[in-house]
Design goal:
Layout (H helix, E strand, L loop, with lengths): L1 E3 L2 H13 L4 E6 L5 H13 L2 E6 L19 H10 L4 E3 L3 H4 L18 H4 L3 H16 L3 E5 L3 H13 L5 E5 L19 H6 L1 H15 L5 H12 L5 E10 L12 E10 L2 E10 L4
Parallel strand pairs: 1-4, 2-3, 2-5, 3-4, 5-6
Antiparallel strand pairs: 7-8, 8-9
Helix pairs in contact: 6-7, 9-10
The protein binds pantoate.
The site of pantoate (PAF) has 10 residues, from strand 2 and helix 6.
Length: 284
Amino acid sequence: MLIAKTIKQAKKAISEAKLKNRTIGFVPTMGALHYGHLSLVRAARKSCDFVAVSIFVNPAQFGPKEDFRKYPRAFIRDERLLQKEKVDLIFYPSVAEMYPKDFSTYVEEIYLSKPLCGLIRPGHFRGVCTVVAKLFNIIEPDTAYFGQKDYQQACIIKRMVKDLNFPVTVKVVSTVREKDGLAMSSRNAYLNCQERKDALVLFESIELAKKLVRGGGKNPKKIIAKMRKLILSKKSAKIDYIEIVDAQSLQKVDKMQKNVLIAIAVYIGKTRLIDNVIVHLKGS
Ligand code: PAF
């Protein structure tokens, strides 16, 4: 397994792999890896000859008051995990390598980025698109893997790929959950014991919504109200948003339709967690 800290080193490894006609699978991450990330790596390992993983905590996607500084960093542990998964290349650049002093070009998707997390974290998806576009240009993957937990991010990346003609297939892999249902996230590490228990309410509330929709619930407002009540039964919980939107356009729906995304962002103490579920309704 090669560790490239510079763009030049990464590009050299990639061109050598391409010369050998190897297909490139790519998993972009910010490190502090968990089984959610490893499921993406495994999906890449299964379908591609050469697997590259980037580890880069991207300052451009954090707001000024967000957790860029305290975001967990665990390179030695990550390296060990990726070695076990038989990853071929880790791209582990510094901030200066990715954003030199005179950096002044950003990539912005302007439709799918507006609702949900985009409303509350202005500039977040611009930072994500910019870094992913750079990473795609450096790694030149055939296929790139993203998790469903960040569903909006995956939709935006797919749109960016289509709009800007990146020759990349984007695959979205199901959310990996802890045994009790909490979606795996690097930010779960911030939770104390009580908060970890309270955090389960995210999963419980989307399960409740799924059940209500499948049971014929037609009114998103009523479903959201029930989710809100359940979430607020936990002292440490503060709701950022609860939305029921069309799973393709991410725009709000006023009645249930074929494919809806139920998406939530909730603070548990000081930790902001997200989760979602897509409900497919037959024949509506
Ligand atoms: O999902 C993430 O970890 C990040 O947003 C990504 C895609 C690695 C870009 O920094």
